[in-house]
Amino acid sequence: MKAVNIYLNFEGNTEEAFNFYKSIFGGEFMGGVMRFRDFPPMAGMEDMPPLKEDEKDLVGHVSLPMTEQATLMGTDITSNMPEKLIVGNNVQITLEADSVTEAERLFGKLSEGGRVVMPLNEMFWAEKYGACIDKFGIHWQINYTGDKAAG
């Protein structure tokens, strides 16, 4: 396996969400932000209903590298897509921090404007672990194993 990437779907606010994530993780969007109006015709999509005019400027694809092995990607769900967006706990992203300080920073930023599910505390497997739902409805787990990794 070369990499594991995380793909998030939003209902019209992908760009806002990804600018938020970029402010936390840094980096640049790979290839910029691609709008639906910029997509070339795609094989197998000829039978899909056309996009509504107000959906053409929504985000068709955006990628934000988080590490050399992980990229956060996303899109806006449009009215012509066969599946509708359901915000829930079906996606959780776990971040393994490099230090207690980084775990505290990530947890603080991601939970800001959202909801803390489990406060950042010591656990039997980790020096720090916490879970939150950010202001966009995405579920995050922050983990710093630290010295407990040895067992």
From TrEMBL:
User: Domain PhnB-like: where?
Assistant: 5-142
**InterPro entries named among the record's database cross-references:** Glyas_Bleomycin-R_OHBP_Dase, PhnB-like
One Pfam family here:
3-dmu-9_3-mt
Looking up PANTHER family in the UniProt record yields: PROTEIN YJDN, PROTEIN YJDN-RELATED
Name-wise, this protein is VOC family protein
